[in-house]
Amino acid sequence: MTFPRPNLAHLFKYHPPQTDMEIERYRRIREAGKVFAQVILNETPGCADQSVALRSVREAVMWANASIALNGDPLTPPS
């Protein structure tokens, strides 16, 4: 099985929000991540596992934001 080659110029450029709706989507994702991270801090002991859990929330927020920025398609720039 072969995979399509990614468009690196598209993947690694800055993708500013295009609409007020996009800005709001980013805000809601960040806020939800922050709330979940606070629950993790409040309900778990400070340890390596807690650190991984918090890092994973940050990573989930990053990937969710990337899906918005790339409009769900990391290979093809929007036309």
Description:
By secondary structure, this protein is mainly α. It has a domain at 17-69. Helices cover 63% and strands 0% of the residues. Helix 2 (20-43) runs antiparallel to helix 3 (48-69). The two termini are 28 Å apart. The mean pLDDT is 91.
Give the rounded overall mean pLDDT.
91
What would you report as the Rg, rounded to the nearest angstrom?
Answer: 16 Å
Structural class: mainly alpha
Element order: H for helix, E for strand: HHH
Count of alpha and pi helical runs: 3
Strand content: under 5%
The tally of beta strands, per DSSP, is 0
Largest sheet: none
Distance between the termini: 28 Å
Q: Helical amount among residues, as a percent range? A: 55-70%
> Low-confidence parts, pLDDT < 50 over ≥5 residues?
none
Shape: flat
Keywords:
79 residues, flat, mainly alpha, 3 helices
